[in-house]
Amino acid sequence: MNFDAMMQLIYRYMAMRAPTNGMRVAFYRKAGVEIGKNVFIGANVFLDVTWGHITIKDNVYINAFAKILAHSYIPNHPPKKDVGKVVIEQNVFIGLAAIILDGVTIGKNSSVGAGAIVLKNVPNNVMVAGNPATIKKIYDDAHE
Fold first, then answer.
1. Is 77 helix (H, G, I), strand (E, B) or coil?
2. Helix (H), strand (E) at residue 10
3. What would the pLDDT profile of 30-67 be if each residue is shown by its tens digit?
4. Contacts of 93 (CB under 8 A, 6+ apart)
5. Contact (Cβ atoms closer than 8 angstroms) between residue 128 and residue 105
6. Dihedral over Cα of 125, 57, 65, 102: its sign
7. Class of 3-143 per CATH?
8. Which residues are catalytic?
């Protein structure tokens, strides 16, 4: 493991255990996550940028214990690693313990319900929930 990879792991570990939002955001930025303005990252949130890339735009709230994975790997089934980019657009709410997998974009003004597992892109102005996450509500124009 090279020095940069080791530092990224240390920053991610520190971010997950940091006592304040400002510290979590700062450590995740150091770990390579692109984070916009007015972003809240709850306690024990896991943002995995080991191989992929995560972009979090402005005015995003990520609740505690959420996981955002920019890659997937299942040993010997098939023997390959999928690397993707995850984008969280503006004005998004991610509920408690939600999981967002690689290659997914969460659209503007959308919400992800607690415990949801998001496998596919989420359009703008919707609320998704469940496993796998499906659209449960479409927000009208007043939500914007």
1. coil
2. helix 3-17
3. 999 999 999 999 999 999 887 779 999 999 999 999 99
4. 60, 61, 63, 110, 111, 112
5. no
6. positive
7. mainly beta
8. 77
Q: Which two tokens stand for residue 12?
A: 């991610």
In the chain, count H helices and then E strands.
Answer: 2, 16
pLDDT digits (tens, 9 = 90+) for 82-118: 667 999 999 999 999 999 998 999 999 999 999 999 9
CB count within 10 Å of CB 144 equals: 10
What is the Cβ-side half-sphere exposure of residue 97, based on CA atoms within 13 angstroms? Answer: 4
- Alpha-carbon distance 130 to 87, whole Å? 20
Q: How far apart are CA 21 and CA 143, in angstroms?
A: 26
What's the pTM? 0.89
Task: Supply the DSSP symbol for 51.
Answer: S
User: Can you tell me which residue has the tokens 């930025």?
Assistant: 29
How far apart are the C-alpha atoms of 93 and 127, rounded to whole Å? Answer: 9
Looking at residue 27, what is its pLDDT? 95
Q: How far apart are alpha carbons 33 and 18 in whole angstroms?
A: 16
How buried is residue 142: exposed, middle or buried, by Cβ count under 10 Å (0-12/13-18/19+)?
exposed
DSSP-assigned beta bridge partners for residue 122: 106
> What is the pLDDT, as a whole number, of residue 75?
60
